[in-house]
Amino acid sequence: MDYFVLIIAAIFVNNIVLAQYLGNCPFIGTSKETGVAMGMGFAVVFVATMAAAITWVVQRFLLVPNDLGYLQTIAFILVIASLVQFVEMFLKKAIPPLYKSLGIFLPLITTNCAVLGIAIICQRKQFSLLETVVFSIASGVGFLLALVVLAAIRERLEMARIPQSIQGTPIALILAGLMSLAFFAFKGMTS
Amino acid sequence: MKEMIKMVVVLSLICSLSGLTLASVRGVTKPFIEEQVLTYVQGPAIKKVYTGNDNNPVRDRKTFTLKDGAELTVFPFLKGSRLGGVAFESHGRGYGGEIGVMVGFSYDPASDMADVSGIGITTMKETPGVGSRVNDPEFGEQFKNHPFKGMALKSAGGDISAVAGATISSTGTVDAVKTAIATFNEIKGEFSSTWGSQEQP
Amino acid sequence: MNRLWKEFSKGLWNELPPFKVVLGLCPVLAVTKTADNGFGMGLAVIFVLTLSNMLVSSVRKVIPAKVRIACFIVIAASLVVCVELLMQAFAYPLYQQLGIFVPLIVVNCIILGRAEAFASKNPITYAIADGLGMGIGFAMSLTVLGAIREIFGYGTLFGVQILGSWFKPFTFMVEAPGAFVCLGLGLAGMNALTNWQRRLKGLDAIEGPKHDCASCGMCNIK
User: Fold this and answer.
1) C85 vs B contacts (CB less than 8 Å)
2) Among C80, C85, C90, which would you mutate to test the B interface (most chain B Cβ atoms within 10 Å of its Cβ)?
3) Widest pairwise Cα distance in chain C
4) Total domains, chain C
5) Distance of residue C88 Cα from the nearest chain B Cα, in angstroms
6) pLDDT tens-digit profile of C137-159?
7) Using the beta-carbon criterion (under 8 Å), do C209 and A23 form an inter-chain contact?
8) For the complex shown, is ipTM > 0.95?
9) What is the pLDDT of residues A23-64, one digit of tens each?
10) Which of B73, C24, C26, C118 could form a disulfide with C108 if both were Cys (CB 3.0 to 4.6 A apart)?
11) What is the pTM for the complete model shown?
């Protein structure tokens, strides 16, 4: 498959949050400030890529040869949970500045459905290892993009007067809907 | 230290219990899942390749062992408990990977007359909009009630026109059909003994 | 008995997920294209949530605190695999429709959130009541949201045509943007209702439930 098409499709056309509905909890939860959003976004890119690559290996060399394909879900979530723990310990020891900026987001990522979702999508589409890595980086970047844009809009919104019932989560969801509508225009660019 | 041991024991106990449970659930559901997958994944393709049968091809399926040891699941089409044709899946090499093709045959055991009754694509990874057009009706229609003779692309001396710009995908599909014809000729002798016994007195 | 009813019924209205307790948004958005998809997903969540609450509560005393999250994840994931297998065996079309959101039930914060916040601290009967109540509440919300989107998006309800031929489907509703906007308006409506009720009682209006990660309980772990 053409990698350029794969990347554009993952970032814009099938944006992981706005078109595939994955990772909405952190999308709404950590989009109040651009700084926080950046940190969360990069943490997702980083973990999702590693997780997708490792789960690809697990699926290919552990589950499929032993006819354990039905254990995919449980194996993947355990891999991701331990990976997150490991990355956290590693960053704390080896690269303290990076740990300072990403550290608080790492525990949240175990239950971020974008990470598990990307790993499963790569399996369902039967990607090769290289395609998996490219796809998961691009999907992570798509998440980062959507998150930072929403955070920027919400920062502006601080100044606006909004009816009380719509403040907070409702307006964030409606904004996400409008962004999703904008991203909808990318449909038809591929295929 | 004691806590450490407890942690390990509890975790491994929970994991082994969950493993046991899942293995047994898997054991119980396996035959049902197989049937469902065949009905909903291959079922639509099977329906497309043959008309005029009144049985459920998925339920009446049988598995044959080929000469090279591979196993093949064959779906029969019966009309009033008389065998009218069969279908099975075959594979060819496409541009993006393997192309799966469900090939239907009309077959009359008494006169040994057989034609390809139709094809349906089951799996493929071809380029969207180009190679994927082997799945379009215009291409598939050419195989409807097609005799075994002339089953090749026009460029190879047959009478199938390739999808424009997608020679590799078209060749892959035709190759899959050709493989299916060879397989059909190999096992067709066993068909009437397998499904013929259901004939009413 | 009284407490049992309280634990059960709180999920049906006072703490109705995802409107009053904003949890597990991904499936809410993704599978509410039609009412029956929402209902099917709701059933799967009821199954997993009730059993996971039951199991977590029954082993809560033997699990060492340090590895409890790992244990919860194993329990939840095993149940999800069970659901996957059962759904494939007996409701394959639904399994195809829900796609990757069936395995993703395991990371739905409602499961681990309830395990951590409730089941690991309460006896087994209350844990079951809580799981059942929350699950049914979640299934109701999904079905209602699915019904609204299906009616406007396709003119059908549970696959049955209910609007006449004059109706031109409002496709926006069944695509991704519609999902976000519908859920946002639903939450807003719920907040407005709460505030209206409070005003009737002579109380001040309050801000709606926050969705920061604190609401799922997983994030303040450790």
Assistant:
1) 22, 25-26, 29, 33
2) C85
3) 63
4) 1
5) 6
6) 999 999 999 999 999 888 888 88
7) no
8) no
9) 888 888 888 888 888 888 888 899 999 999 999 999 999 998
10) C24
11) 0.85
